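Continuing from the previous page of notes. For each protein in this section, the sequence appears first, followed by its structure tokens. Read the first protein now.
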Amino acid sequence: MPGNGPKYYPCVLCNKRTKPHERRSINKSVAKYLNKSFLITPKQEDKICNTCIHKYYVQETKHSSVVQHRLSDDEDYVPPAKRRSTVLSSPPSVSLSIPSTSKSHSYCFICKKPGPKLIVVPSQARFSTFLKKEVIIPAGCRCCPGHLMEDNFTEDAISKINCTNDNVLLNRSSIMDLLKKLRSTAIQNEQSRIDFDTDKVLSDSDFINLTGINKDNFNDLHSYIKDLVRNTPTRSTRTSLGIFLFKLKSGISNKVLSTIFNISRSSLRRAISCVRQALVKNFIPENLGFKHISHDDVVNQHTRPLAQTLFGDGTNTQAILVLDGTYIYIQKSGNFHFQRRSYSLHKGRPLVKPMVVVTTTGYFVTVLGPYLADSKNNDAAILKHMFNTNVEDIKEWVQDNDIFVVDRGFRDSLELLDDLGIKAQMPSFLSKGQKQMTTDEANASRLVTKVRWVVESANARIKRWKYLSHVLPNKQVPYIGDYVCIVCGISNKYLPPLSPGCDNEEVLAAKMLHLSKNVNTLKQRVEEENFERRKTIWKEPDNNLDDFPRLDEEDLRNLTCGVYQIKLSTSYIQEHLRKLPNSRSSRG
């Protein structure tokens, strides 16, 4: 009986029986075309086949190159298995001379491995392959999951992709989609190559050059601010962090940064301010300050055995800290009172002084200040202020017999340190009328310098962030302490120690202690034979130097107890060679 069998859907134009995936509904534009070209007036329930409606598209394209017809969703029939797919597009009809791969469903198109554990190639992977190799991968192509990583092919998989066809057949929808993606990529590359949101754009070395830390460390640092800094239409939280670190690392002005990142200067200033506040709140308390690390951790993890042997009492319970002030230069202020307080007679320019406290390995324990640079705030006065105000509970942290290694600028605070039970190690002074230190004083100063140099290197590490080595505007003075603390916290968490030490440090320290107590026989010979009163005449040596002692680098290290003098020896030799009138250097 009628109605019991399958429903028959003939094409209204060619009268061909259409299958479900071939039939199309007839909208007003198609009905007008059929009535005008074929004198056919379709009914509402009539259908048209895919081939015939394609003729309609070709005919319309000839009349207008800008007309694009797309059948609406409510007029298209979508098979049940494809309910979630996008709007149906025109059939492939444009042939392009672009290499393409095979379209496979039952096997991987890269390694030809059969299923069933195959996945459809994501559109991002197909597009990136086209950008890198100019190869079209047909939609619906399948491959092994191991060839993909985060919706992109691995480098090994890209190298194994083979082209089976010299051309490809595409429809208008695919071509338009490809053009839109190419345009979006071109705009993104035109705006900025510096993209912190996409891991694939910048390499690990790029992150180090731009931000001072590698990609993994950048991601970890971002976790401290992502809940406090909000995304905006012009910048994400990752971009804001990248701008902040790039500013500190390079010292480039906001005007140039605005051009590089293609955002306004006001947005740039807000990004820097928000990231600074977020890092001070979440990052700094965990990585800087007396409260972030215990006394025992400093002794056991951040104290060199050489320092313990030179200055310790053998119990290995004393914390050895090295203190020094560093300089951050600022502009001359129009406020006369602040101008006087920030002017340094020693440097002859306005500046502020953060007080840096490090361990003997170069680990930043804390950074205090910054303090003003006038005579009321020399290093000794700053140290007294630290203990009198008990900043960061320093009195509770420091224990009896702890050791502070300082320079001569702390001489006025030695009495206070002694009252607190802290031992101070400081280079010796020349007494009034004394022209040269005694042997014991010179050796004691050398022992102090062997440990104290690390704080100078720590100050240099701070200045490697170029923003802090430049002259800062006065409006940034209230935030200088935050910037220095952030840089030191990043150094503690992500950068290697400045002075990790070596395996035989105890032996080297014992040798230095032994040599420091020996009699200076060279001094005695100079005084006895009056060598200090004779003039030294440099001349070219004879060709016969067989009797001259030949020492390798290891022998020189043993003599000098380090490498500093070895590095300077070449410069000293060149200086003397330039003084020789008949030397080759003077003739050349």
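Done with the first. The second protein uses the same format. Note its length before scrolling.
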Amino acid sequence: MTERSFADEILRLAVEACPSGMVMTDGDGMIVMINTETEQLFGYTRDELVGQSVDLLIPEPLRTKHVGSRARFMAAPECRRMGAGRDLFGRRKDGSEFPIEVGLNPIRAGDKLMVLAVIVDISQRKRAERLKDEFVATVSHELRTPLTSISASLGLLAGQWASKLPESAARLLQIAHANSQRLVRLVNDILDIEKMEAGQIVFNMDRIDLHALIESAIEDNRGFAANFRVRLRLDDASVKLDVNADPDRLSQVITNLLSNAIKFSPPGEEVVIAIEERLPNVRVSVRDHGAGIPADFKSHIFEKFAQADATNARKKGGTGLGLSIVKQIVERLGGQVGFADAPGGGTIFFVDLPAWNSEVGGEIDLDADPAAPRLLFCEDRREEAIGVREYLRREGFAVDFAHTLNAGITRSEATRYVAIIVDLKLPDGDGIGLIVRLRAQSANRRTPIIVVSGDPERGKRDPRAAALHVLHWLEKPVSFKPLVEILRTETGIVPRARPRVLHIDDDEDILAAVEAKLRPMVDVISVASIKEARRILPIERIDLAILDIALGEGSGLDLLPQLRSSDGNIIPVIIFAKRRNIELQDNQFEPISSDQTLSLEKLADAVRDRLALPPAHFAEGLHDTYSPAPY
């Protein structure tokens, strides 16, 4: 046997021994080679598959879409992993379907381009995920409710009847009450962890008076501290600053840190909370006077179910989940949590949150629909990131920012994204290095990643790039339509586009007030003249128009003939005018006058009603009229 034939035989044996299915096709999608595992996965023999179209292994409803995906792959062949962020299925010979993941690898054979698909059956993984989801649902519905009832009943008995029971019975009742409370906390903590890891918790961000929130948390925990004979105090030097956060989740963070500090402080000591300015952040620190954290446990302090001393933790009532929950919440808020040994003994836990800045929008996309599929855009230029966000938001996506490599890692660990877009130039590292670290995260091993760069070819030439399974390499400036098509095709998600409203008014105050009122439910395009509106109409999809009548020297009614969609249907119109007596030729127009606040509420209700109507109603051309009081 020659050296070449020996190498070929070794390669053949390796392909046959591969535990994943391997299918090689030509440029037209015809199968030229399979391995034994493919026969076992799909139930076909080798002779039945070779020479046939690979569409034979794809469920019929997906075949048309697969043709387009194959054409795009052949136009820009590169290693790609499919099945991340969406469900892919294979079709067996008997017609049954099963979930799969597919890795595509282009291979040059002379002047021909072949495609090697590595296919993995993920049925067992899906089953495990389903079992976990069912377990969490069971815990939520079958355990939490009765446990809460049992704990409340035991608490009532312990509070009102313990003194009338024998001492041994009263002690057993107190033990039962304490343990039922511990079980309730454990169940709640497990559910919180699962929801956060699944990205199911929506954070309602707002401007928060941090000083007031912490004072409230201290008062809420004084009773708990009294049980341990520990005092709580807010440091007199604490500054008064605002942060951008979800008040309920931030209160949960502070409560967990206070509870931890109280439980591990000796009786007679105090827990001190401080707020200090560390621009661009605000730091909240919680200092206890306990025994400190053992050196060999410090690296595990934020892990789930982590306990430095299981016996001591049980005595203190710990679940081992509190600090893990704190870390996940703080990172979702765009901050960081850490700890340090306190001078003189004890531990200081601290939380750094971005200080409120009214001139800078948040990195978390708060104005998008909470149910919208969420993307992460790692880009150092804020103006460019905002432009991408605004466009993709109109297409139904939510877009979070990360302006540095470290921020990208923090954000990706805190939130489950359907896809990540990465610029190659970042102030604290390079984009390829960021992708390497993203792929090292278990949650992002298969997340679709798209590179945007002024020189994408340079990134492709990086030796590290071949193993990173980058979905696409796009050149700046970003062409939005191809980007949206890529996101929809590769994630399998077609988001519901937010309704788009065109508001025409020459009063800047009214434009601003209406935009602020309607922003939570629609995208508002505000223009101050008929000329601007006519420029917008041909290039933007408009679902509804809000129109003032008096616009400088003209009338807003002059625009009505142009208010039609691209398919010719009349765009519904709401007349929102300052004038109280509006003379219109059509009897369908009936002005309504009221004060400013009520008018905005009526306008919001009218917009909601109009956008909920079926298309047939839109074509009727009926118009509503509302009249706000002068501003």
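What the second structure shows: Confidence is low (pLDDT under 50) at residues 310-314, 580-598, 613-631. The longest strand covers residues 97-109. We return to this in next week's lecture.
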